[in-house]
Structure formats: C-alpha cells, structure tokens
Amino acid sequence: MKRQRILVAYGSKHGATAGIAQEIGRTLEQDGFETDVVPAAEVRDVTEFDAVVLGSALYAGHWQRDALHCADRNAEALAARPVWLFSSGPTDDSAERHEIAPVRGAAKVMEHLHARGHVTFGGSITSETPGWVAHALVRHGKGGDHRDPEHIRAWAHGIASELRPPHPA
C-alpha cells in the first residue's frame, strides 16, 4: 500500500520555526507517512501531496511573508486537500499554558483553505539569533527557547490519527 505523502512547509527567518517543522516531519514519518519538510518560499506545487502542514514564525504579531505567499500561490490545490497550520512565536511559556488563537493573517489563511486546525507553539530567541531586536530581548531577559518537543509531537500525532484510514472491524 502506498504511503501518504505530507508536505510540511514553513516560513522562518532564523531557524526556530524550521526546527518545529522538522520535528513535525520526523513525527509523521515515525507514524508511517512520507514527508517533505521545505521552506515555504520553495513550494511551487502541492498537488503531489496528500496533505499539507504549513507553518510560520510570528514577527510582531504577523505571519511571515513566505508562508502567506505559499498559501496564496497554492490556494486552489490546498483547499482540495487536508491542511493544518501552525505558528511559532511567544518567547515565554504562554503557548504551553493555554491555547493561543491564530493571528489575523493565519486566521484568514485558515478560513480560506478550510484548514482542519491551527496551533501556536512557543518560539525561540537566543544569543545566537541574529539581529539587534533579538539581542536586545535576550539582554533584557526576554529570550529563551520555548519550543516544547512533546507538544509538537503530540500535535503531529493528532494529524496522523486524522489521516490514518480507519481499521476494518
């Protein structure tokens, strides 16, 4: 039997969201799916995939441009297959304490593509993160890696269970 193919695409400036996408891809692979994990800017055609997970880092409360363009560029094909969305951004533990609603751009994409779900994961800003804003946040004690691998894997397992065909009785 042919394994279902899942695209995990992401918009990430500094790599933290790419790490989340890779964890989602690994988990789906372990659950028996074939996955491709690629930057959203490189996605030109999603028709060869059975399902798509699209994620973005949050910058000042907005989805990253590459993720938004990927959704627009592939809107018709994405609307015809199961799609899930994720965001990464809070640099505190708020994403682990309670569910965070999608930001406006992600909510619009979710509605337009009839996405099956959205989750916001904690983000990461460390001393290795480039840019003066990141350095200032770290200097003022507002940095840290708040990505929770268990939360990421649990969410990916949920996707796998929705895509897995039901067992015959």
What does this 3D model show about the protein?
The protein is an alpha/beta fold and 169 residues long. The protein is 39% helix and 23% strand. Strands 1, 2, 3, 4, 5 and 6 form a 6-stranded mixed beta sheet that branches. Strands 7-8 form a two-stranded antiparallel ribbon. Helix 1 packs across helix 7. The radius of gyration is 16 Å and the shape is globular. The protein starts with a strand and ends in a 6-residue tail after the last helix. The model has no long low-confidence stretch (mean pLDDT 86).
Helices and strands in order, then pairings?
Elements (H helix, E strand, L loop, with lengths): L4 E7 L4 H15 L3 E6 L11 E9 L2 E2 L1 H9 L1 H5 L3 E6 L5 H4 L6 H10 L3 E5 L2 E2 L6 H8 L4 E2 L3 H15 L6
Parallel strand pairs: 1-2, 1-3, 3-5, 5-6
Antiparallel strand pairs: 3-4, 7-8
Helix pairs in contact: 1-7
Descriptive key words:
23% strand; 169 residues; 7 helices; Rossmann fold; 8 strands; 6-stranded mixed sheet; alpha/beta
Give a brief description.
By secondary structure, this protein is of the alpha/beta class. It has helices at residues 16-30, 65-73, 75-79, 94-97, 104-113, 132-139, 149-163, and strands at residues 5-11, 34-39, 51-59, 62-63, 83-88, 117-121, 124-125, 144-145.
- DSSP summary, beta strand count: 8
Sketch the major β-sheet. 6 strands, mixed
Oligomer: single chain
Give the second-level CATH assignment, the architecture.
Answer: 3-Layer(aba) Sandwich
Q: Radius of gyration in whole Å, from Cα? A: 16 Å
**What overall form do the CA principal axes indicate?**
globular
Fraction in beta strands: 15-25%
- CATH fold-type name: Rossmann fold
Helix count, DSSP H or I runs of 4 or more residues:
7
CATH class descriptor name: Alpha Beta
Question: What structural class should be given to the helix and strand makeup?
Answer: alpha/beta
Low-confidence blocks of residues:
none
- Overall pLDDT metric: 86
- Quickly count the domains: 1
- Which bin fits the share of residues in helices? 25-40%
- In CATH, the homologous superfamily goes by the name Flavodoxin domain
N-to-C span: 19 Å
